[in-house]
Amino acid sequence: MAVFTDVRFTSDVTVQALAESVSLLMSSNPKGIMLLCTDKAASWGETFNLWVNKLKVPIFGGVFPGLIVNSRFEPKGILAVGLANDIHVSVIENISNISPHSVNVSLTSSSVHSVVIMVDALSRQIDGYLQQVLHSISDDCCVFGGGAGTLAFHPQPCLFSPKGMHQDAMLLVEMTTEWDLAVGHGWEVLAGPYLANKVDDNRIVELNFESADKLYQRVVEEHSSLLFDEHDFFDIAKTFPFGLARLDDTVLIRDPIKVDEKGLICAGDIPENTMLYIMRGDAQKLISAASGAVRNTLVNMISTQHMGDCILFDCVSRQLFLRDEFTRELQQIHAELGQHHRLVGGLVLGEIALDESGILSLHNKTAVTALARVNAEERVR
Amino acid sequence: MTEMSRTLQIISIQHELAMHIGLDLNLDKMLQLFLDRAKKRLSLRRAVVFKEAPRAGKENDLLCYPYDHRSDEVNDWLVEQVYQFNQLDMMTFCHKKGQSFFYLFKIPHFGAISFERRIQPIDDIVLHALLPLFERLAVSCQACLEHQKLVDEIKNRKAIEEQLRRQTYQDVLTGLPNRKMLSINLQSLLINVQQRGQFGAVFFIDLDRFKLINDTSGHSVGDELLINITSQLKTCIRRDDTLARVGGDEFILLLSNIGSDEQSAVTRATKVADKMLDITRESIELSHCSVYTSFSIGIALFPSPELSANLTIGEQAKHLIKHADVAMYKIKHTSRNGYMFYRQELQVMSAFRSSVEQRLHIALREQLFSLYFQPLVDVDGKVVAAEALIRWHDETLGWVGPQDFIPVAEESGLIVDIGLWVLRHTCELIAQNRDWFDRGKLRYISVNISPRQFSQAHFVEQILAVIDEYNISHSYLLLEITEGVAMENITTAISIMNALAAHNLHFMLDDFGSGYSSLSYLHKLPLKSVKIDRSFVAKIDQSADNQVIVEAIIYISRHFSLECVVEGVETLEERAYFSDKGVAAIQGFHFFKPQPESAFVALINAIH
């Protein structure tokens, strides 16, 4: 039994094109719609709000730097996906300013099997809100998602819900569909560890009691032929992310995206007094890690379960790092899944995944593939 | 990971978690910050702190942080493990349940902490590195508890202080400032007024007929009315003005900054008073009934030349309230439902009133009153009855007219004893002269019953007891009440009158036409006679309007089989007018002035 009723892609990023796609999609009788769009959609504003008001089924989604349709990377377009199972969309607004502890995050139903989270990537306190979500879900609930926005990194509406477009918000999409996650990045330690002794949420101010940007530039320049004075910061930084060493020997990646007078700004929070590594990447290892994670997940599926359609939230900076080879990553992931399975998704600014230890994290430079689980009996039907 | 990196990692975990202990003095927040950090740094699914608490039966009452710790199979199991762990003499313990490892650590003198790790256990070396942290956490928990205890103590002390302040300065029923608070506010207002050159005002507001509502409908209705009135009065004033409740039905309002000259202050105060009087235009809806009420408001402006500079601020405040009270008293005893500004003449009247009240006590104690009798005649001028009238000559004040001392007696409550004195002496006179009645010289002698006397709890029994002391026929007496007395509460009035009528003791309605003039109740009240008010009688021969009214009253009285009595006939022309109107009796100076008792006795005895 398919999880997607239909998938519609158009390269024309207008509300009119969206309306036409969704109109065609509606003939498949979806119970909900996932909508992924590229940059231009961020300026739809009131036109989108007026259109969505008339829509009869719940919708959710966001604006992302690129889209994934099977093994294709689409830098521009609208991807509308019809969902066969019920969904419930809720929005938490103003998350940068309201303390996560003062907001009651609760799910509407106990029969929820998964929660897809989409969040404005430029918001603060994302991790605090993720921990609140974690607190409200049952042990067997699957959580995944990604950060929305554009590579321009300036605040703008980037999330879609039945209420319209949102900025500085988090979407919680409750689903009855069961998913298994495959999380992989393939980055390796280059240097470190360094003590992040002074931090402000997603800004590293000091490393080893030294100005963070100076230490970072010095170490990276030692290992690379590139000089920060001659290149745009992110052009070099996308190749040398930070890694947070965890006790289970996994490493959570943090992308340094900007440098300002106060320090290095990362896509995702850095805990104060944590130990950081500077990482390096190798194209083949990155691609193998992403596709290998999918293979492991498939192996671990129990015999009564089969895989249905898939969603991939792949980090935009992987695409920036891999360039032309990014398509190879998609092809290998799709090949692991099987060409007859539909794979849709987007390039995101931070990937969200609940790992098998029950820890919900915002990752960077990581590929999160969600594989819909279809029980054998459903498949027969 | 190299050996060095591993060592650094452990040191960094220890350092990082240690830096997250004691970041807040609030226990919840402090633990929340530590637990959040521990969860992240140690890759935990869950971290919970349990505080030791007494355990009763099977109920687990370990306190958990965070507080919304859910009760389910795993959590209940965990609580049980923690409870058992607390009894053991060991600092750490690990349980494996399903895919999870549960690590329990003691927090000395506080409780325990539980870490849940899925799939992979925590390295022993890391566990050992954690142990010193819980010693630190214990100290921090104790510090938070001490801090909280201190905060609670301060809060309690503040709450008690606030309660004491309220008890001292607030009226419990309405929540308004009481007299003490009012006095403080007024004094500070007076100081400010002197500095700023602005006028202010003190309103003395009295709720008319409140006692009657309280007595007849119960105290709960009275209380509800006061609360309702309070909220309505508040709508008439500004936030900075002080409205205080200073007695059962008495409020005092302080207005500040109402103008820089007296005229604008008067205009402003008048506006506020008008607004207050508007409240009583319609009935006030309470939970189980609706009541009509009205206000009598006395207003004193300040600064005032009368408040001499020699007076202290406290004395000035007292004087101002007294002035407003005097003005209120005046309006209450003239029209009610109105307001009056204080003038110096009122103070003079008030002083006189005070002397009257003082001397009345002496007069009553020393029996210094005398009784006069004014005969009533028939149309032919033949004496048929008399009205007993009290007179008072005081050695200090001289002759004090009833119009001056009766209201004071009524207000002070002395009227009840005075009324009984009049009744007793009249009965005594009747007892001494039964033959007047036996021989048909007089039909009755009437005595006046005051509103206060009439509303006494045991009025009927009291009256009967006094009359029976003298063993006289009840029909020799007639009780006069005014319309107002009957109308205060017509149901009660009817019941009292019926009770006395059953003992052959009847009523005459005095001053008919001067008050409510409602003809509709005439047939409801068990009356024997009505006495037409003297205001209609004066120069009736010249007033066509009065003639119409009087003839209508006579006609209606006849219709209801009531005897009609006329008072205030002073001229030949007035007498002539009534000669053919079929009235039962006429009273007035044209025939007789009120006679001292001896003269009256002689007059009646002389009749053959």
Annotation keywords:
heterodimer; A: 381 residues; alpha+beta; six-stranded mixed β-sheet; 27 strands; B: 608 residues; alpha/beta; Beta-Lactamase; Alpha-Beta Plaits; TIM Barrel; ten-stranded mixed β-sheet; five-stranded antiparallel β-sheet; 22 strands; Biofilm_reg_signaling (chain B); Nucleotide_cyclase (chain B); Cyclic di-GMP phosphodiesterase Gmr (chain B)
In short:
The complex is a heterodimer of chains A (381) and B (608). Chain A is of the alpha+beta class and 381 residues long.
What does this structure look like?
The complex is a heterodimer of chains A (381) and B (608). With 381 residues, chain A is an alpha+beta fold. Chain A has two domains: 4-184 and 285-380, no CATH class; 188-280, no CATH class. Chain A is built from nine helices and 27 strands. In chain A, the strands form five sheets. A six-stranded mixed sheet of chain A has the order 1-6-2-3-10-11. In chain A, α6 (283-300) packs parallel to α8. By secondary structure, chain B is α/β, with parallel strands linked by helices. Chain B has three domains: 3-150, GAF domain (Beta-Lactamase, 2-Layer Sandwich), CATH 3.30.450.40; 179-342, Alpha-Beta Plaits (2-Layer Sandwich); 356-606, TIM Barrel. In chain B, strands 13, 14, 15, 16, 17, 18, 19, 20, 21 and 22 form a ten-stranded mixed sheet that branches. A five-stranded antiparallel sheet of chain B has the order 2-1-5-4-3, sandwiched between helices. In chain B, β11 (295-302), α9 (313-332) and β12 (338-341) form a beta-alpha-beta unit. In chain B, α10 crosses α11 (402-412). Chain B is elongated. At the A-B interface, β14 of A face α1, α2 and β5 of B.
